[in-house]
Amino acid sequence: MLYDAFFRSQLSSLRREGRYRVFANLERQAGSFPKAIQQTPRGPREVVVWCSNDYLGMGQHPDVLAAMHEALDRCGAGAGGTRNIAGTNVYHVRLEQELADLHRKEAALLFTSGYSSNWATLSTLATNMPGCVVFSDEGNHASMIEGIRHSRAERKIFKHNDPEDLDRLLSRVPAGTPKLVAFESVYSMDGDIAPIAELCDVAEKHNALTYLDEVHGVGLYGPRGGGVAEREGLAHRLDVIEGTLGKAFGVVGGYITGSEVLCDFVRSYASGFIFTTALPPAVAAGAIASIRHLKQSSAERDRHQDRVAKVRAALDAAGIPHMANPSHIVPVMVGDPSVCKAISDTLLSQYGIYVQPINYPTVARGTERLRITPSPLHSDADITHLVSALSDIWAANGLKRAA
Question: For residues 137 and 194, is the Cβ–Cβ distance under 8 A?
Fold first, then answer.
């Protein structure tokens, strides 16, 4: 084709930089998480997955699977269309009620992914409020950035997790201007947590809407899994809480929660909602079961935090450099894209450990890393094997150890 030479040259540059993405062909084994079967040219082999966002292993929970089987048998495979045209199912309605209750909000609105919920909601709000100015944390996810950009609203970037910088920027905007402050609770690559109360203080001072992405917090924090905002008793101060069903809840989909009128506004104006086929009923049923279970069970969260602490302690003892943070995300710092990919390849090929390298543009150049996400299902033996393998690789390559 006419442009294939261009595409090849661009792909070649990614390979030279060590940033070309290679997908492992994995077959997750229900009942055996975090183990999976890797399909290779030499045949299948068992590996242990250390980078899954199915943080609590709810993707194999018996209640979730049973609910999905029942809904599949009852309703069939697909939703049948968009929510407006034949696609709304009783499971969608129940799930939105469950999510509204989870965050103590009046209403919720389902999307097909966390990416689309961020993109569509931020774009819709900022586009349709005349003269709106959006204040976005510089560490926000690509889905938030793209939604804000698509709105063509004026955008101000405040320093990461910096309420003082947010206040400074808000102070420069006329008082009557519509304002929207968007930030995350847990940032997925560094694992740091936003000062939600302080950011709400500033937003309230300037009469700005608050939009919190809880994608990496829901299910994992708070007495009922409502996220960091629930844990800190702040959910009522946030106008929009956005989340996902594809991480701690173990299925797929995204959502927003807020006032009834705000959710109805997004439902009525967001093209990313209106023109998208609805989630399959079985997926919605599985999400309902997962949310209900985690609302009443803290066992998964408690075990999860125990595993995270054990991994961090083992890495410290071995001198493997990792970023300190208060969350469940454990970034092992490498700092070079080629080396990061080589470590990942060695872990998989020689040790049966699957951890994807995280390189630019997902993280800044020079901060390349392995993003480790312990789960409640990783055993002490799994942890020992992981850290021993990393220690061997660090020694074989003469990599710098942490003090």
Answer: yes
